[in-house]
Structures are given as C-alpha cells and as structure tokens.
Amino acid sequence: MIEPPNTCDLCPRLFEYRLANKTAEPSWHNAPVAAFGSPSAALLIVGLAPGMAGANRTGRPFTGDFAGDLLYQTLQRHGFTKGHYDKRIDDGLTLTNCRITNAVRCVPPKNRPNALEINTCRSFLEREIRSLFRLRVILALGTIAHRSVLAAVDASSSTYPFSHGALHHLPNGITLADSYHCSRYNTNTGRLTNNMFNKVIAMVKTLADQH
Ligand code: SF4
Fold this sequence. Notes:
By secondary structure, the protein is α/β, with parallel strands linked by helices. Helix content is 36%, strand content 14%. It has a single domain (36-209), classed as 3-Layer(aba) Sandwich (Uracil-DNA Glycosylase, subunit E), CATH 3.40.470. It has helices spanning 12-24, 55-58, 66-77, 115-131, 143-152, 184-188, 194-209; strands at residues 36-37, 43-47, 81-82, 94-95, 98-102, 137-141, 167-169, 175-179.
C-alpha cells in the first residue's frame, strides 16, 4: 500500500487532532491526504503537511489555501496542469508530468509536525518515491521536506544542504531541487517572491521535460 488508510493512527497526536477536527468540522476531509497526479510523472513536489483549511479540508494536496493558489497558478503557467484550478477536489484539474504530496500526510497542530511524526510518515514518502517509475526530479518545498526526501533515499542532509534554488544530483540518479515553501508567511515576509518561485518551477520544468 502506498497511501496510508484514512484511519491511520501511527502518530497518536495527529490521530487525536484529526478526531477533534472531525467533531469541529464534520464535512471536512480530516484524514491523511493522498498524493495527487499521475504515477508516471517525472516531477514529484513534496510539501510539508496538509494545511488545516486547505488540503485537510478539501482532501487534495495544496488545494484550498494560499499556498495552493500560488503553487497551482505557477504550475499552470509552466504547463504542468490541465483544466482550471478552482480550490476544490472536484474542480476537474489534472496534472501533467507532475505529482504532489507532503512529507507528512496529516494536518499537524500549528503546521508543525514533530520529528517522530516526520520520521513515521516517511515510510509512505519512501513508498511514493519508489513507486514513481519515471521520476527524475523532486522539488522539496522547505527544509523539512528537503530533509525527509533525503532520508527517504538514504542520502545525507550534510552532503546536500538546503538552499533555495539549489539542485542536488543524488546518487540514485534523481535530482533534488529546493525552494522555500510557498506559504503565505514566506511570501508576506518577502522570503519567497512570486518571481523566485516562478524561476524554481521553470527550472524543474526544464529538467522534467528532458525525460
Ligand atoms: S502523519 Fe502519516 S503516519 Fe502519521 S498518522 Fe498521518 S498518515 Fe499515519
């Protein structure tokens, strides 16, 4: 099984949080969020974790919050999408040569998974990476995703340190690209501008198109 079951309780704190969210918002997804996109994609984008009112609400990675607005708008500009992104899981949007997931599949309190939760959910990230038979590029959004991807492929973060815009050529033949996370916080503080993010997506597009 690549994806965790909706009842996954391997992280007790996140399991309890999901149950509390279900009580508060019974119409929301409130379960692990499965990857989105074709299993034959050359590009895998890895975020941190579902946003409370974004993917945790809608059930699709990055769908329904600010980070998703910027991500899908930029993916669309570079030809990674077909259809119209309308912040809903049933908006008909599809991805082209691209797949999106998170290092941690359940929403964490305050957007902060702890180290044990990141390590526990990595088994699903590892399976995800192994299952993508045409995978050539992984784009990590933020340092936690970067480190989790490296651990998933048995590479060291001291050998491949996070740096926005960097490309790391990993021993398994996959290229790891880094970007600051496209969160509202990072864009509001100016750490990540639309132009910076656009350049990163253009870079991974070039690499993904080579395969
Ligand atoms: S974060 Fe991952 S491992 Fe933890 S409960 Fe959710 S799906 Fe299971």
